[in-house]
Amino acid sequence: IEHEILAQILWFINHAKQLPTHADGHQHCHVLPGVRDVFASAISKFDIKWTRMPIEENLKLCGWLTEAERMFYASVVYNAADSKNAFSQYGMRYTDHYIGLSLMGINLTKERILDWIDQIISKRSNNLPGRSPVTCELMVHPGYRCGGDGGCGQSPDEFSKSPDREYEMELMKNDTLRTLLTLRCDFVSYKTIYS
Asked: How many CB atoms lie within 10 A of CB 48?
């Protein structure tokens, strides 16, 4: 696993001519037991400090999810929470909040994004003043659906071949959504966060 992680980071450096700003694993595999320590050690060799922490709160309130989705996402959240100690040993950081498990494909709507953001802002306003700004990662998969080629070592998974990717892309380009979000928060990248 370490060899593959290091090879992918080196490939990125050779092609992008810069270090990655953050690293994570496909389908959140970086938080799995047996992977998380190797992952943290490998990316720390390049001083990469940021990763995704897929802990989405209140999944049980997402009535649009199937029971199978809810159970899978709960296991991702459990493994992510269990990864915090390993990640902290390497000085890794992640955003204060994460949204994305419950909002994949057609589950991603303008109203749900805004509702999640409003909940985070409301929760934050109940905290003590004078703290640093709150951060939240919104995970999306915008793009064109894949044909029969590509994928992560195999052919593309069902989501990659799904029209949901194009749906997410169109929603994320929506001017009304962007305007409503900019009234609530600032957009930043991992490169500029806390810089």
From this structure: 19
* Average confidence (pLDDT) over 21-49: 94
pLDDT of amino acid 120: 87
- Judged by DSSP in three states, 39 sits in helix
Decide: residue 55, CB within 10 A, 0-12 exposed, 13-18 middle, 19+ buried.
buried
130 is written with which tokens? 């004078």
Write out the H or E segment, with its range, that includes residue 97: strand 97-99
Which region, left, alpha or beta, applies to residue 17 given φ > 0 means left and ψ of -120 to 50 means alpha? left
What pLDDT band is residue 121 in, cutting at 50, 70 and 90? confident
Chain-centroid distance, C-alpha 151: 18
Residue ranges of alpha helices (H) inside 126-174 are 158-161, 164-172
Distance in angstroms (rounded) separating the CA atoms of residues 91 and 38:
14
28: left (phi over 0), alpha (psi -120 to 50) or beta: left
Q: How many CB atoms lie within 10 A of CB 91?
A: 10
pLDDT mean across residues, the chain: 89
- Kindly state the tokens that stand for 105: 């494909």
pLDDT exceeds cutoff 90 at 141: no
* pLDDT score of 70: 94
Tokens coding 182: 């900019």
Residue type, 54: P
For the whole prediction, is pTM greater than 0.90? Answer: no
